[in-house]
Amino acid sequence: MPTLVTDAKTFTADKAWGARDLALIEGASVRLHWTDQPYKWHVNDGAEVFVVLDGQVEMRWREAGVEKTATLGPSDMFIAGVGDEHVAHPIGAARILVIEKEGSV
């Protein structure tokens, strides 16, 4: 049965990085996140696609030990490969679609 998601711009969670599971596709989870707090520096064990749906997020990552940043707005994407160290810092509240290997943190 198909699922409609009509509240992506208003979705909230009871804590930062709270999520609604939307789909599991061949081992990849698709989740809608809400946050108003930074995440933590991390490295995924699989690729991650990060799409800002609402709000702004300062994405930080490290290349050869050098920290880089970019500010993402609605419809902007950040794609991290295996081993890419990164962290998301929302600027106010943000809603983000994340597609990643099931069980990644």
Describe this structure in words.
- This protein has about 100 residues and is mainly beta.
- The chain has strands spanning about 20-25, 30-35, 40-45, 50-65, 65-70, 75-80, 85-100.
- Strands 1, 2, 3, 4, 5, 6 and 7 form a 7-stranded antiparallel sheet that branches.
- Strand 4 and strand 5 (about 65-70) form a beta hairpin.
Give a summary of the structure in a few sentences.
This protein is mainly beta.
Number of strands: 7
What structural class do helix, strand and pairing data support?
Answer: mainly beta
**Overall pLDDT confidence:** 95
Rg result: 13 Å
Q: What percent of the residues sit in helical stretches (DSSP H or I)?
A: under 10%
Distance between the termini: 29 Å
Low-confidence stretches: none
- Sum up the overall morphology in one term: globular
Sheet with most strands = 7 strands, antiparallel
Strand proportion = over 45%
Describe the secondary-structure layout:
Elements: E1 18-25, E2 28-35, E3 42-43, E4 48-63, E5 66-72, E6 77-80, E7 85-101
Antiparallel strand pairs: 1-2, 2-7, 3-7, 4-5, 4-6, 4-7
Structural features:
single chain; 105 residues; mainly beta; seven-stranded antiparallel β-sheet; 7 strands; 59% strand
